[in-house]
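protien #1 (seq + structre)
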Amino acid sequence: METTATLEALLAQVMLIAARHEGRGSTTDERFNIFRILGVETAEVGTHSAFISELLNPAGSHGLGSVFLKLFAQQVGLADFEAEQATIAVEKHIGAVSLDYTQGGRIDICVYPQNGRPIFIENKIYAADQKNQLLRYHNYDKSAKLLYLTLYGSPPEGQEATLDFDPRKTQTVSYAVDVLAWLGECRKEAAGSPLVRETIAQYLNLIQQLTGQAGNKLMMEDIKCLVLQSPDHLANAKRFGDAFYKVRGEIQQELFADFRTAFHALLPLHDDRVIVKYRGYDVRFSFDTDASGYYWGFCGYDTQGKGGVCKRSEFDELAAFLRAVNGQFKRSAWWVGWINPPGFTKVESCSPEQLYQLAQPEARRELANKTAREALICVEWLQQKYGDL
């Protein structure tokens, strides 16, 4: 009871500080950030992995060779890393995820030196851990150095250990400390390239905002002074932070489970999820979540069970048909058409009000059922046009 009362008292004081500073905002140009203006500040793949990998790439458009990669290797303690001829891969596909979750997936950033161990970086902003994803990366290349990058250097969760792999020994890296320090050094090295330097400065500012080190500095200073008044206040502040991320992570997991339940309840799915046979290919219904958010759609597989074939010309008609049914469908190598739930992409982008709504089971089920009903319409249209199995 005493701990609860102390937490409530601290929260009340923080709310008073926030109310006092409300509307003041920042008086500097820190409020102008191109990543935030474009609404991509938390996009792990499209923003963070893409930008970091471009800096790491010795052949990147920054035109400064391997200097940024060398600085990164120094920051994370990789001595004697051969950066000069290194190559970079982003969102590297390593096969379909196996039923036992020991193989397959996508590696966010891969760094391949000319000689020596490659570096695999798992990049997390807000997305929840996927089952055994680090084990799958390890099994793909057991010589690789795994780095687990999160906002605050959190350890991975939901990862099984094997005889030759212990997820607890994976090196953690943080945006709050490691990436900010690295970007600061990169900005110095780019002094002679103004456009590169200022773009790095914009991204550095974004990371400061995401890790609570920017924004309304006066308010943050007041909150810091409050938190530093005693060890108990520090401990309680950590409890608040831990609770927030735990709540959001649980909402993610519960929402995905609600989607799974709704899809299986409404859709006529076979065990292999094949919806139709199309020009010799299996078209399967699937749903998933990644750094870009929740999505569902239709994947194509050839007679050998190989995916990644949906950019072939044979799928042009099917892709056009799906876009005619719903103009929001997007196409990729693995998906002949994929789409986000109506009016929703991911939990991380939710406002506090939206997050509170999704914490209610009935609101999650309503979103999941609405999504499943839309999916059912598409499945029925496909089966009507191309033949029901």
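ok now protien #2
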Amino acid sequence: METKDINTSDKNHKPIRAGHGRKHGMYYGLPRGGREYRKRGKPMKAPAEEVEANQEDEAQPVQTPSTACFPDKPGAFDPLGISSKYAICGMPFNADTYRGSSCFGCAYCEANCRKFMPASQSLKVGNCHAAERVFRRVLIDKQEDPTKILDVCISQNLSIHLGAMGDPFQPAEAYFHSTREFLALCSDYDRHVVISTKSASFYGAEIDPSRVSIQMSVSNVLNRRDIEPNVADIRQRVRLFNELKDAGVRVGIRIQPFLPGLSGVNILELFKGADHYVIEGLKLVPQNAEHIQQMLKTLGLPRESFKAIGGHLCLRPELRLELYKPLIAYCESNNLSYSIADNDLRYLGNNNCCCGDALVHKSTSFHSTAMIAKYGVNYTKEQLLYEINESGFAQCHAAYLAASNRQHFGATVEEILCAKYDVRQSPASPRFFYRG
């Protein structure tokens, strides 16, 4: 797949530091202890006018976290990784600057409800020096291993999805600045990054419109503290959205999770002018019965409205499809870019990558959304095999990404995806799609 130019037509756009300080952020404490990768420019100025968000009450800031909330010496990890969902995701090249913390304490968060994995919930901070060593090995020393998916992603300059497992602008960023350091590293190596975040502050990180796109995750506009206790007031997020758009940054709105009774067309109307809209349904962890009951009660949904799909409890596809129809109709009637990110409904949308072609510098060509866009929902195994081989990923080792691969499907990307093509229960198969 050819690289798409994500630069805006206005060449005067410069990198910005948005959402830094009291007027822009949820958390107002001064940063401590961050590692400065290089010096930054001046913060963006506050907007001249307040943003209306259909609410009469004043925006209420969320409680500032004390630095005592964070360990002096948290665990460290390599920020770079590959998603096991490479068959259905066009951006398998992932990065996280934080892992293990509850971020904003959202009631629906998988990290909060996986009680059977308590050790994984302690805060860990990404080691950007480890990421730099990988970039240097592949790009400077030219020691690419063609059997490693990560190396091929780097050499082909695929967009990096930052925030795959943890929000890169969670409260810990005010203290550790790992995200700011990672973005500086990506800038030095000319990497493009798509950031997923719920935050209304970037804590001084540089947002370069030519190298960074933003996915703002929004589930409701009502400031429901029983569901999202530490997420910024919706008006702060609208303000940041408008600032980013004015600065030439590509911004998408990701309605994830879609919450029945709370998520709706009002989100699209409030964030008018987004470059892309994505909808993805609520997923519950089946091992946590207490969390399931809590969410069912909060949303007023019966247990029978959910079914097991791919290791999660998901709202039944026929119900999701009915709930999504008003948003789909709104997007189509207004000629808007949109995608459905649910694995069984990926044929709905008008992009090659569910995160939005406008936001993504370069994605793979063999994931399910791209295959549907090019060949239709009934694409053949021969067409899939052709795209895999053309992509340069065919012989990459991928069995380590999922235990089931080692047991049933093979070792390489080509072997695994060709084997899964005929498995109806696999999201990698076109037979998995819900057709109504």
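The radius of gyration is 21 Å.
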